[in-house]
Automatic annotation (TrEMBL):
Highest taxon in the source lineage: Eukaryota
Domain DUF4209: 131-211
Pfam families, per database record: DUF4209 (PF13910)
InterPro entries to which the protein is assigned, alphabetical: DUF4209, ERMARD
Protein name: EMARD protein
Organism listed in the record: Ciconia maguari
Length: 668
């Protein structure tokens, strides 16, 4: 890993030339008045004249365009430097309002006055993400589904209608096209070091954003449309993101030392790391994470390319190839179908892979990188809790990968807890983890049933029901038989020779099953398809439970107030009788679901099997639970039909038991 000291750039020679040299080849000074009207508006026609096109197909000639726009960008940069903050605000503040984040663009102006390379790069990253979000809002004036990728957004007909195709081509020279400067991707994916991003390109994008505001105002006046800004994404359930302990000043001081020693850090990127830690200290949590995520990516890319023996992938790819990004580095196989060696190098996959999948990739996770880079998050309200996790995780990687003797650091009283947390991390946002959470929440809901207010038992006995007759005995027997068959696959501490229904189908059993460690990395497609059905079943069971709770409380209140008609009273008593038997059935289904999570995952990894037939069975259980939701709803209240449906479902579950046992035996 001493390689990190020798690497001077992560830009391939062609990309380095385009970003660092091409726009400086024309030395002629450019008069700012050519593109700036007397009242301070952008003269777009003069700007668009600098975009060149290929004779063959009239597509943008990015090389000639960058070369031509270079002096224009320099002129804009010098012009902004000549303005005071007050002058800039008076002249441009109005034209940034369309972005819904005027303050950010005023901050970028401040950064340009001092040309601090790290701050310029950070400002450019924030500017491009905010600009993308604002352009998406404009797109929705005409279109319906906003493109996820910036390059598709900039190439859309909808934006061309509002701003004009020539204007959009100017933007594509700077961002959104792999053939242009591609500043957004080069920065957000960690390829560019601070000194490799010319400040004049940041200044030009600031200038163009104001110009877009001027064009948009004209369009809105002509069409009488109103620009609506989409709400920001808000992180909910922050406690689910709580992995590492809170970082204090001492921990951050050690982090600064680690950054200087660890071979995980490319020396050219050191300013980004130090700026990220400084931002955290100053409570600028969004800035901290924006700076740090690309550095985690480039550090892991160094590991990835070294262990997989593909050093050329460390550099930015050409337009005809793909970047080596988080998605590929976390994949099971390389693009040549060989096994990715990175997880093995990370030693404990949960150390990095599961954490990164949780925080960056899983659809139900916070997806921090996507949401920050696409402008979906209010930067001013970015939570400290999230930044704390990213910094702490980064520290564990810094400790793991170093040429120095890091034993003293690893055993330090503030570092050791971080390393321990990392080594025992379990995925929280993989579908398996979410299903476990659903099952436990559903069981908690069902456990509330015995606490519900109810009428005296003698009233219930007046209703001819299942209890005490042959049908009831058969009902209970079927549940007991199924439990008996499944007990050999349950933790021994939860098995019982007594009453199987009340002593086995418990919250304790589910907690123990859900606590079993399952590696969620690289789940096969059959597992993911089965999980979709299992989660739907769990959701339906939970809805049934909530409906039972709501109906029971309402009917009891009506009973006590004597507002129920005769038929309603009869139906209420039928409900009370029915839920005695419905509770163990729902608990049985939850236990089955949890066993499936463990065993199906193992089977799919060890032995291929005809999961389509198995999926068919699960879908029949899903159909049963969906019907339960309908019959137990306040609108239907069909309790006799509920019990008939449940009886048929239990017969089917018992018949399929042999198949399920075969499946579980394959897993053991």
């Amino acid at each position: 890993m001493a390689l990190s000291d020798s690497i001077t750039t992560c830009l391939s020679p062609p990309v380095h030339y385009v970003i660092c040299k091409l726009g400086f080849e024309k030395k002629d000074a450019y008069d700012i008045n050519n593109i700036l009207s007397e009242n301070g508006e952008v003269c777009w026609q003069a700007v668009t004249e600098h975009v060149c096109y290929l004779e063959s197909d009239q597509s943008v000639d990015y090389i000639k365009s960058i070369r031509s726009l270079g002096p224009v960008c320099e002129s804009v940069n010098l012009y902004f430097k000549s303005l005071t903050k007050e002058q800039f605000v008076i002249q441009y503040e109005l034209w940034f309002r369309w972005t819904n984040y005027t303050e950010l663009f005023l901050q970028v102006f401040d950064v340009l006055q001092y040309t601090q390379t790290t701050e310029v790069a950070l400002g450019l990253m924030k500017l491009t993400s905010c600009l993308e979000r604002a352009l998406g809002d404009v797109y929705l004036l005409i279109g319906k589904d906003c493109p996820f990728l910036l390059r598709d957004l900039l190439a859309s007909e909808q934006l061309a209608v509002v701003f004009g195709q020539a204007v959009m081509n100017v933007l594509r020279v700077f961002i959104g096209s792999p053939y242009g400067l591609n500043l957004r991707n080069v920065l957000w994916h960690g390829f560019a070091s601070p000194q490799e991003i010319p400040a004049k390109y940041c200044a030009m994008l600031l200038f163009l954003t104001a110009g877009l505001g001027q064009l948009l105002q004209t369009y809105l006046l002509q069409t009488k449309c109103i620009l609506v800004h989409r709400p920001y994404v808000i992180f909910v359930s922050l406690e689910e993101l709580d992995v590492f302990p809170d970082l204090n000043h001492e921990t951050l001081s050690i982090a600064e030392e680690l950054v200087k020693l660890s071979s995980f850090v490319l020396k050219t990127m050191l300013p980004f790391w130090m700026a990220a830690l400084t931002a955290f200290k100053h409570s600028r949590y969004a800035d901290c994470v924006i700076l740090l995520l690309p550095q985690l990516e480039v550090g892991l890319r160094l590991l990835f390319t070294t262990t997989n023996k593909c050093p050329n992938r460390l550099l930015t790819a050409e337009p005809s190839a793909l970047y080596t990004t988080f998605d590929e580095m976390l994949a099971k196989h390389l693009d040549n179908e060989e096994v990715n060696q990175l997880p093995a190098v990370l030693e404990e996959p949960a150390m990095a892979s599961e954490f990164l999948w949780d925080f960056l990739n899983h659809q139900e996770g916070p997806r921090i990188r996507d949401r920050l880079s696409h402008g979906e998050i209010n930067l001013e309200a970015f939570p400290r809790e999230v930044a704390n996790q990213i910094v702490a995780f980064a520290m564990t990687l810094l400790c793991r990968f170093s040429d120095e003797d890091m034993c003293a650091f690893k055993e330090h009283m503030v570092i050791k807890p971080l390393m321990n947390c990392a080594s025992c991390y379990r995925s929280r946002f993989h579908p398996i983890s979410r299903l476990k959470k659903q099952v436990l929440e559903c069981m908690k809901s069902i456990h509330l049933w015995p606490e519900l207010p109810t009428v005296p038992e003698e009233y219930v006995r007046t209703i001819k029901g299942l209890e005490g007759n042959a049908e009831a005995s058969t009902f209970i027997l079927m549940i007991s038989e199924i439990i008996s068959q499944l007990q050999q696959y349950m933790p021994q501490s939860c098995c019982s020779s007594g009453d199987p229904i009340n002593s086995v189908l418990t919250e304790r059993l589910l907690n123990e099953l859900c606590d079993m460690r399952i590696c969620t990395l690289y789940s096969p497609r059959p597992v993911l398809e089965i999980l979709v059905v299992l989660r739907k079943i769990s959701t339906q069971c939970h809805q049934v439970s909530e409906q039972v709770i709501a109906s029971t409380e309402l009917r009891y209140k009506q009973w006590m107030n004597k507002t129920l008609r005769s038929r309603q009273r009869h139906n209420y008593l039928r409900m009370l009788n029915s839920i005695k038997f419905l509770s163990p059935v729902l608990r049985l289904i939850l236990v089955l679901i949890t066993l499936e999570v463990v065993n199906v995952h193992l089977v799919c990894k060890k032995n291929p099997f005809d999961y389509q037939q198995y999926l068919k069975f699960l879908k029949s259980v899903l159909q049963y639970t969906e019907n339960l939701v309908t019959y137990t709803s306040p609108e239907k209240n069909k309790w006799d039909e509920t019990m008939e449906l449940t009886d048929k479902a239990l017969i089917k579950i018992r018949k399929i038991s042999d198949r399920k046992l075969m499946l579980m035996q394959l897993a053991t």
